[in-house]
Design a protein that fits this description.
alpha/beta, nine-stranded mixed beta sheet, six-stranded parallel beta sheet, 12% strand, lyase, NAD, Urocanase, EC 4.2.1.49
């Protein structure tokens, strides 16, 4: 069968032969054996409902074995035989170009060059899934191939509930992932209900089909690292020859060495999974691969002497580096961590002194001991960081729940008041006041033609638009504008494309709208093919996350989730091609609500009307909330937007003189 025929077929008519698991695959960790006997039977019953009854006997045995071996039922037998990658949009069998665009984005998320654990349909973060199993993938692709522009596909945590009549102006797909009754939103609840096959963890851009490889976070990481150095360096001093130490080279965290190179420092990223580190080295995302501590010491000193801009992957535990650099008196200028501590007990963070394979055995067979070892390592990790910060190291939490889990482990990370952490998150110190409060966030696009020349053309268009906007930009955002112009000028030479022909750029509502309009006009003129717009959920409006995206909200509302939910609802009727809302993300299940969107630009007037309406709301929803929280940068930004958009009328806070509060209680 051809590729198109296989897509249209969905679940095969004949039971396919059992597949062997590829020996060289980067496998997801085995999940907890958390189900009772009755629940395991329910999990099998749930899985079998996708298939004809006469297959049940054979598949029941097979699925039971998968549940035993992996802690999940992935249905490997049904993985399609064709290669999965982002094809050109016209190669997909579809009645709707919007549906074809979504198929392209789904396949990009599952491309082995992009995905962290592609066999398990996991894109990044250790558990950020596109679907729970291969049957869901087959059915979703089939539904998209049949969909008209007056139907909407509704996905419940990967499961396609079906096509429902709607309208041309409605989203083509509505995605929810992990939405739980609040009292059932603890980590073990995810383990249980995901094993049952009734929910999944979509991370942020995995389950919303908007992941574009490590590039997706490179720009934000670059901004963060550049400004981290700006906070500690004297005027005129550069990051050259100075050290940025971090950990993690998996999905999103793989962006760190590339960002360090762009920022112009020496980056050291520790990674316990040799396959992950080697993959990033082979892809050119990290310059040097080292698995010996003594060799690392020599190489770092050499880089400092020669004032190199270089990134080094150390295959091992980052705690070893913090401790050894203290002994060797190697000064770390900037430090952080980007391991997947949102899932600390299932492979997101590994204990020191135990091999990678042995640690994975403990996850499966001795989870209690594994947890003890992880918490012991977190305490040791924090102690080592504290020694360096006393010497002047600037350490920030990178929103991966490092400080949260370290505090839960009893590590010395709390401020004197016993309530706050002693270190700020990067959103509190950098991205919040500098970017999000002004409306700057990770706008991204994918050239649906798959043609690199289209990406070059969009880079040029975006740069020209930003340069024109900057001519009249207020002083408050001149640095942000210049950083982004510099970024887009250098984007191609930094070789960040993995999978689809995609780009990311931090822009505010004005920038996003004008860039998107220019793209749509170029499409109409036949200069480029269709373009898919999107963004990371890690943005101005999309995410309510008290330990990351909204950690600089100080009016007591940072634990509320109204903004993310309004964001998705508001985008859906203003023209988004698809929308998504997730429980969980980079900081953990039950710790965050986040929403995303995708929009196809096809060169039509209707597309231009949709993008202007939706982008204005998508950004300013968050600025309005940040303004109401009394964030001064956001108050400035929303007042400026109201001047530019007369139909926008937002409630502005009346500021209180603190002196009148002193003697009230």
């Amino acid at each position: 069968m051809t590729f198109k025929e296989q897509i249209i077929q969905g679940i095969p008519q004949d039971l396919p032969p059992k597949r062997a698991y590829p020996s060289n695959a980067n496998r997801a960790p085995k999940r907890k054996d958390i189900l009772s006997l009755e629940e395991k039977q329910l999990a099998i019953r749930n899985a079998l409902r996708y298939f004809p009854k006469d297959w049940h006997q054979e598949l029941a045995t097979e699925f039971a074995q998968e549940l035993q071996d992996y802690g999940r039922i992935y249905m490997y037998r049904f993985k399609p035989s064709y290669t999965i990658y982002a094809r050109a949009i016209e190669e997909y069998p579809a009645k709707s170009s919007q549906a074809a665009a979504i198929m392209l984005m789904i396949q990009n998320n599952l491309d082995p060059a992009v995905a962290q654990h592609p066999e398990e349909l996991i894109t990044y973060g250790g558990n950020g899934a596109v679907f729970q199993n291969w049957a869901q993938y087959l059915l979703v692709m089939q539904y998209l191939s049949k969909m008209t522009e007056e139907q909407t596909l509704h996905l419940y945590s990967g499961h396609p509930m079906g096509l429902f009549p709607s309208s041309k102006n409605a989203p083509r797909v509505v995605v929810t992932n992990g939405l739980m009754i609040p009292n059932y939103s603890k980590p073990d609840d995810w383990e249980k209900y995901n094993a049952l096959g009734v929910t999944q963890y979509g991370q942020m851009t995995a389950g919303s089909f908007m992941y574009i490889g490590p590039q997706g976070i490179v720009h934000g990481t670059t901004i963060t690292v550049m400004n981290a150095f700006r906070k500690i360096l004297a005027k005129g001093e550069t990051p050259t020859g100075k050290i940025f130490l971090t950990a993690g080279l998996g999905g999103m965290s793989g962006a760190q060495p590339k960002a360090g190179n762009i920022a112009g420092c020496i980056t050291i990223a520790a990674e316990v999974n040799a396959k992950a580190a080697t993959k990033r080295h082979e892809q050119g995302w990290v310059d040097v691969l080292i698995d010996n501590m003594d060799a690392l010491i020599i190489r770092v000193k050499q880089a400092q002497e020669n004032k190199e801009v270089v990134s080094i992957a150390y295959i091992g535990n980052v705690v070893e580096i913090w401790e050894r650099f203290d002994e060797e008196n190697i000064f770390i200028h900037v430090g952080s961590d980007q391991t997947s501590l949102h899932i600390p007990w299932t492979g997101g963070y590994y204990p020191i002194g135990i091999s990678y394979d042995e640690a994975n055995r403990l996850i499966r067979e001795e989870p209690k001991l594994f947890k003890e070892k992880v918490q012991e390592t977190l305490r040791r990790h924090a102690t080592a960081i504290n020694k360096h910060t006393q010497k002047g190291t600037y350490f920030f939490d990178y929103g991966n729940a490092f400080l949260l889990e370290a505090s839960r482990a009893g590590a010395n990370v709390m401020a004197k008041n016993g309530i706050d952490f002693k270190y700020s998150s990067y959103v509190q110190d950098i991205l919040g006041p500098m970017c999000f409060d002004y409306g700057f966030g990770p706008f991204r696009w994918v050239c649906a033609s798959g043609n690199p020349k289209d990406l070059d053309a969009t880079d040029q268009i975006a740069m020209e638009v930003l340069q024109k906007i900057m001519e009249n930009s207020p002083e408050e955002i001149q640095l942000q504008m210049q950083d982004n112009i510099t970024w887009i000028k250098d984007a191609k030479k930094n070789k960040m494309v993995v999978g689809s022909q995609a780009r990311i750029l931090y822009a505010d509502a004005e920038g996003r709208s004008k860039i998107a309009t220019a793209f749509n006009q170029a499409i109409a003129a036949g200069k480029i093919g269709p373009v898919v717009l999107g963004r990371d959920h890690h943005d101005v409006s999309g995410t309510d996350s008290p330990y990351r995206e909204t950690s600089n909200i100080y009016d007591g509302s940072k634990f509320t989730a109204d903004m993310a939910v309004h964001n998705v609802i508001g985008d859906s009727f203003r023209g988004a091609t698809w929308v998504s809302i997730h429980n969980g993300g980079g900081v953990g299940w039950g710790e965050v609500m986040n929403g995303g969107f995708g929009m196809l630009l096809d060169g039509t007037n209707a597309a231009e009307e949709r993008l202007k309406s939706m982008i204005l709301y998508d950004v300013n929803n968050g600025i309005a909330r940040r303004s109401w929280a009394r964030n001064k940068e956001a108050i400035f930004a929303i007042k400026r937007e109201m001047e530019r958009t007369p139909s926008l009328n937002v409630t502005i806070p009346n500021l209180v003189d603190d002196s009148i509060l002193k003697d009230l209680f």
